[in-house]
UniProtKB/TrEMBL annotation:
Its EC number is 3.4.11.18. Its main location: cytoplasm. GO terms for biological process: proteolysis. This is Methionine aminopeptidase 2. It comes from Bodo saltans (Flagellated protozoan). PANTHER family: METHIONINE AMINOPEPTIDASE 2 (PTHR45777). Substrate binds at residues 199, 307.
Length: 447
């Protein structure tokens, strides 16, 4: 093939050469863009599967469904919706027929004077009269069971405490069908670590992370129309803490067994302490007796008030003249410690609660008045967390909140701590003293 003749050096020829160069440059740019698009295009599922990357893929994500092979929830009646797994997404109210929520653990009241109750038609009639309230409690209890079952499936070392509390609270609101003060959380989620026995939840900005060596008390409450379920358990990853957890769990179960109509509160405390302090735990080559924390107690619960006025001791020698009564709702909770067995208030406060008489107290500060109005609207007399104020538009609240505390409108509930370096555990159940029998509403397969 003969060589091409050189182009003539005329103005027209120069223009043609420039045009040819521009065309070649444009083609080269187009080819580069095509290659880049191919590189950036999403890979097919099969291509991702063969890469062996540690990053989770779309195929690796397990979708929650009622038909999941490991779904722990039973089949439901026709017209109801079975709960999903591994993440529960179905309202508890949609899983059961109206007024057919799961019954708690039913046991007879102790004492000879209560034997007649199970066969008494009068007591049965009284029980039927309170069926609506009982069903609200049972629904709230089932929400608690389902939330804690789910939480236990993913809580592990390395997760920030803020994330743990936020996820639990979000799931609680989802499963209970959050509706203002009618349905929702009864108090902030406690996640107290180690020597901190109670009343700790992270404030905004808290970066604390759960570790393998921590002992964490998880305590949260559910409520429907002010009917509160208060229940707690302890999470520990290292088996060396098992004797501590067992001591407290068995002490709580003993308190539940002893409780009943006409039972003296002091007798329950003595029985709890006897069981608790029969246990020992060895840590780092040193043996510790598990001690009941003497200035922490169980309590009765009234509508929208977590502490109704009666205390259930966990040591002997207190509340000698007070008895449990028919129809009362109690939280039986025990705390065991490797420390002194006495707690004090310490650290930054996160838990607060408006008092029933708050609206009758005169306030000078308009900002404090506005904050109190906000608290009354969103929380009423239920306990609340500072982070909840932040997230409902009250992010500059601390000065005015302190004013409300000083005025007696709001109760401050700081963390309760034993000596640093000690470890504490907690277990808690809510029981209802029905006319015919005792119902452990919060009992589950876990504790």
């Amino acid at each position: 093939m003969p060589p091409k003749k050189p182009a003539a050096k005329s103005a027209g020829g120069k223009k043609k050469a420039d045009d040819d160069f521009d065309a070649l440059l444009a083609a080269a740019v187009d080819s580069v863009q095509v290659v880049e698009k191919k590189e950036k295009a999403p890979q097919s599922k099969s291509a991702k599967a063969t890469e062996g990357s540690d990053a989770p893929t779309a195929e690796a994500v397990v979708k929650s469904s009622a038909d999941h092979p490991e779904n722990p929830y039973p089949e439901v009646e026709a017209g109801q919706t079975r709960q999903t797994w591994p993440e529960p997404t179905v309202l508890v109210s949609k899983q059961f027929a109206p007024r057919k929520f799961p019954t708690g653990e039913i046991t007879a009241h102790p004492l000879e004077c209560n034997v007649f109750r199970q066969s008494s038609e009068e007591k049965r009639a009284l029980e039927r009269a309170t069926e609506t309230e009982v069903m609200e409690l049972r629904e709230a209890a089932e929400v608690h069971r389902q939330v804690r079952r789910w939480a236990n499936s993913w809580i592990k070392p390395g997760i920030p405490l803020m994330t743990i509390c936020d996820r639990i609270e979000k799931k609680l609101e989802e499963l209970i069908g959050k509706d203002g003060l009618n349905r929702g959380q009864a108090f902030p989620t406690g996640c107290s670590l180690n020597y901190i026995a109670a009343h700790y939840t992270p404030n905004t900005g808290d970066k604390t992370v759960l570790t393998y060596d921590d002992v964490m008390k998880l305590d949260f409450g559910t409520q429907i129309n002010g009917r509160i379920i208060d229940s707690a358990w302890t999470v520990a990853f290292d088996q060396k803490y098992d004797p501590l957890l067992l001591a407290v769990k068995e002490a709580t179960n003993e308190g539940v067994r002893q409780a009943g109509i006409d039972v003296r509160l002091c007798d329950i405390g003595a029985a709890i302490q006897e069981v608790m302090e029969s246990y020992e735990i060895e840590l780092n080559g040193k043996t510790f007796q598990v001690k009941s924390i003497r200035n922490l107690n169980g309590h009765n619960i009234t509508p929208y008030q977590i502490h109704g006025g009666k205390s259930v001791p966990i040591v002997k020698g207190t509340e000698a003249g007070v008895r449990m009564e028919e129809g009362e709702l109690f939280a039986i909770e025990t705390f065991g410690s490797t420390g002194r067995g006495v707690v004090i208030e310490d650290l930054e406060c996160s838990h607060y609660m408006a008092l029933p008489e708050a609206s009758t107290i005169q306030l000078r500060s308009d900002k404090a008045k506005q904050l109190l109005k906000h608290i009354d609207k969103h929380f009423g007399t239920l306990a609340f967390a500072r982070k909840w104020l932040d997230r409902t538009g009250q992010d500059r609240h601390i000065l005015h909140l302190n004013n409300l505390v000083e005025a007696g409108c709001v109760l401050k509930c700081p963390p309760l701590v034993d000596v640093k370096g000690s470890y504490s555990a907690q277990y808690e159940h809510t029981i209802l003293l029905k006319p015919t029998a005792k119902e452990v509403l919060s009992r589950g397969s876990d504790y």
